[in-house]
Write a structure and sequence with these properties.
This protein is α/β, with parallel strands linked by helices and 407 residues long. The protein is built from ten helices and 15 strands. This is 9200_t:CDS:1.
């Protein structure tokens, strides 16, 4: 009993001693921290007496080449026209170009001479032969992709931006795109790789490839043209003719109806732990792709399948009539002239009536390991929840779903 009592007292004394020592140490550290704070405050006070620019200086920006200095419009530029007439909703816009001296363009409100635009600054006002006025702007990439003349349906901004994010790109990436189309996705990929990466774009349609090259050259004075290489022909034949050691890619984007036919030639050229994103309009294509990858034991894992939806909202000012009294007024004129009294100011906030239709599914695949000898037996991993979700989406029974391995 005495032994256990002494042992207990000794243990308690040790615990108390350790606690007291830790408190003393923390107090000392607190004093040191307070001294450091005072020292930092003194340093900041000394620095505040000097010029602020000497405290936080930004690195100088690189000199922008004169070719890309978009302060004035030049021959060959694409121009976005905005109607100057005030409207409650957004104003009408039109895309014209490339500008050429002597050319004319017929638009709503008359004929506009390209010569009247060349040499003018951004947001200047130009007029047609019928005295209809427009402001001039350089188009954004989203506006350019949607409004340029097309040979086929483009990949719209909501999907193109998501594909760039799913590929996890950086300025030093080397990317392959199969299915150039109008060059819309090509522009988004090239912008994410600029100025040190490279994009290899392949299309089996010669006319589409030539048109895409023109579209890329006309956007922003061809700033991305030097960072894109175009090939015309079947994807597998072009890749098999290239040295595999010189054609390893950090990511692949596929826009074709049957991408599984090209995967045996593409996957060996994809780096480990990198992504392939397939743009597939129909869910049957997604399921067929999953089945073909499993059947041919291609070293790809289905990461996710996405359908991107943008829901625009209508948010604008309006007049609360009950707060205007008996005064006669026009809601349209008060709104357009920004003359709504504060006591009667309200806002309309509701989803836009514009329909948001389906475009495509984005199927993201990951290459988890190096694809060596073709005779090697690979285990095909698919996330089970992905397949079950797809099957439930189509209303397929569980016994009809393909057998998959849990990962």
């Amino acid at each position: 009993m005495n032994y256990f009592f002494l042992r207990y007292r000794f243990t308690s004394f040790s615990t108390i001693t350790c606690r007291a020592f830790s408190e003393i140490t923390s107090q000392k550290n607190g004093l040191r921290a307070s001294a450091n704070v005072l020292k930092c405050d003194t340093t900041l006070k000394k620095a505040s007496s000097k010029d602020v620019a000497s405290v936080a200086t930004l690195p100088p920006l690189p000199q922008i080449p004169q070719k890309y200095c978009r302060s004035r419009f030049e021959e060959g530029d694409m121009v976005l026209l905005r109607d100057t007439q005030k409207r409650i909703k957004s104003s009408r816009v039109f895309l014209i170009g490339p500008l050429k001296i002597g050319n004319k363009k017929e638009i709503p409100g008359g004929i506009l001479d390209h010569t009247n635009i060349i040499g003018k600054s951004i947001r200047d006002i130009v007029k047609t032969n019928k005295d209809k006025s427009y402001t001039i702007h350089f188009p954004t990439l989203d506006e350019y992709v949607v409004m340029i003349p097309r040979l086929m349906t483009p990949i719209y901004p909501k999907d193109a931006n998501t594909i760039v994010a799913l590929l996890d790109l950086h300025p030093y990436s080397r990317i392959m795109e199969a299915g150039t189309g109008n060059g819309s996705l090509t522009l988004y990929l090239a912008r994410s790789l600029y100025p040190t990466g490279h994009l290899h774009s392949i299309d089996i349609n010669r006319d589409a490839s030539i048109k895409a090259r023109e579209n890329i050259a006309h956007f922003s004075r061809g700033i991305y043209s030097d960072y894109v290489s175009f090939s015309i022909g079947q994807c597998s034949k072009i890749l098999n003719s290239m040295d595999i050691t010189l054609s390893m890619y950090d990511g692949v984007a596929l826009d074709m109806p049957e991408p599984w036919n090209e995967l045996p030639s593409i996957v060996p050229r994809l780096k480990i732990d990198r992504y392939i994103v397939c743009y597939l309009p129909n869910m049957t294509q997604v399921l067929e792709l999953i089945k073909q990858i499993k059947y041919h034991k291609i070293a790809l894992a289905t990461e996710q399948v996405l359908e991107i939806q943008w829901r625009p909202w209508n948010v604008r000012a309006t007049v609360i009539r009950d707060r205007m009294g008996d005064e006669n007024f026009s809601v349209k004129q008060l709104t357009l002239n920004d003359e709504i009294p504060d006591q009667a100011l309200g806002h309309i906030c509701r989803p836009s009536h514009e329909p948001t239709g389906h475009t495509a599914f984005l199927h993201q695949n990951l290459k988890p390991w190096y694809l060596g000898s073709k005779k090697q037996n690979y285990i095909y991993p698919i996330k089970k929840d992905v397949v079950s979700t797809l099957m439930s989406y189509l209303g397929v029974r569980n016994q009809e779903s393909p057998t998959v391995q849990d990962t």
